[in-house]
Write a structure and sequence with these properties.
The protein folds into five domains: 92 residues, DnaJ domain (Helix Hairpins, Orthogonal Bundle); 103 residues, Urease metallochaperone UreE, N-terminal domain (HSP40/DNAj peptide-binding domain), CATH 2.60.260.20; 34 residues, no CATH class; 72 residues, HSP40/DNAj peptide-binding domain (Sandwich); 34 residues, no CATH class. Helix 2 runs antiparallel to helix 3. It has nine helices and 15 strands. It has 372 residues and is an alpha+beta fold. 22% of the residues are buried.
Length: 372
């Protein structure tokens, strides 16, 4: 069977540059790789064709010969890329995807980031605070300065991978890159480990940090403390610590963005006659004028008595919702007065309870409609 044109196999034009060739090959190789298509002869054949085409077209000399003489110009390729040639292709192409180029990988690693939930009162969140926290973490081992080797000695390059941290395993025509089994990817081995950290290069400890909480933070806001995470591996930089705000429930106020809400219970006498009430704010008490004939659910807005947002802007408002409270544990005399009040109210008709009258009229209409 005649071989297919290499450009046709990769699906590129004859003038395609190296980046286009690489992209086309990677797409086909990822789709038809044997690991993804076990026991699929068609995919295996397409995979081999793509390997052969890329091995030729990615080499400028071989590509030039192929462009002039076709397959005859690269006849020495025979069944495609040799074992060594394909191994290089595999490392260059798939290394970009799976975390390296098949070349040396540094054993130095950045430390892990940490997260801490910081409980705050509403007052602390609104006004800002400086809070001390204790966190369990890892820090660089001082005796070995993070190397993991006993003081006076140094780590040595791994004899298996020569300090690369990776080894290549050949499986037939394929060359697969794997983590070195001896050094576990570190690239180095320690003959005399530090007696404090036992070769890890870091130790566990609990440290105390001071966190400056800016005024106006809200539930879920985060503060990043750079370099306060876990220590890096083999001298790598430390991670960061993310402190997340968790605002505790307040006995009076509920926060909604920059606004505060609260409920104010008042007696039915104050609701009927009106008067001045002292209401709390985060800055102290203020007077609130309650007009006569106030109904339950009435909302009063106190301007600029809310929260100034942490990112700037005008302070919010305090929204006070009135709840008319029914008296309990009435004395005999109070009951007599209320009964007398009720008689007087009923003699006035419905004009003193317009909502009650309207509601019962609505109920009557509803019931009549059901009967008809």
């Amino acid at each position: 069977m005649d071989k297919r044109d290499y450009y046709e196999i990769l699906g590129v034009e004859r003038g395609a540059d190296s980046a286009e060739l690489k992209k086309a090959y990677r797409r086909i190789a990822m789709k038809h790789h044997p690991d993804r298509n076990p026991d699929n002869e068609e995919s295996e054949q397409l995979f081999k064709e793509a390997n052969e085409a890329y091995e030729v077209l990615s080499d400028s000399e071989k590509r030039s010969a192929y462009d002039q003489f076709g397959h005859a110009g690269v006849g020495a390729q025979g069944g495609g890329a040799g074992a060594q040639g394909f191994g290089d292709i595999f490392g260059d192409i798939f290394g970009d995807i799976f975390g390296g180029s098949g070349r040396s990988r540094s054993h130095v690693q950045r430390g892990a980031d940490l997260s801490y939930n910081l409980g705050l009162t509403l007052e602390e969140a609104v006004r800002g605070a400086e809070v001390k926290i204790r966190i369990p973490t890892t820090t660089v081992c001082e005796p070995c300065d993070g190397s993991g080797a006993k003081k006076g000695s140094t780590p040595e390059n791994c004899a298996t991978c020569n300090g690369v941290g990776q080894v290549r395993m050949r499986q037939g025509p394929f060359s697969v890159q794997q983590t070195c089994p001896r050094c576990q990817g570190a690239g180095q081995t320690i003959k005399d480990p530090c007696h404090i950290c036992h070769g890890r290069g870091n130790v566990e400890e609990t440290k105390t940090l001071s966190v400056k909480v800016p005024a106006g933070v809200d539930e879920g806001d985060r503060i990043r403390l750079t370099g306060e995470g876990e220590a890096g591996i083999h001298g790598g930089p430390p991670g960061d610590l993310y402190v997340q705000m968790a605002v505790k429930e307040h006995p009076i106020f509920v926060r909604d963005g920059s606004n505060l809400h609260c409920e104010i219970p008042i007696s039915f006498v104050d609701a009927a006659l009106g008067g001045d009430l002292e209401v709390p704010t985060l800055e102290g008490k203020v007077k609130l004028k309650i007009p006569s004939e106030t109904q339950t659910g009435k909302l009063f807005r106190l301007r600029n008595k809310g929260v100034t947002p942490v990112r700037g802007g005008a302070p919010g408002d305090l929204l006070c919702r009135v709840e008319v409270e029914t008296p309990v544990h009435l004395t005999k005399r109070q009951k007599e007065l209320l009964a007398e009040f009720q008689e007087i109210q009923e003699s006035q008709g419905n004009k003193q309870s317009p909502r009650k009258s309207s509601w019962f009229d609505g109920v009557k209409s509803f019931v009549d409609a059901l009967k008809s």
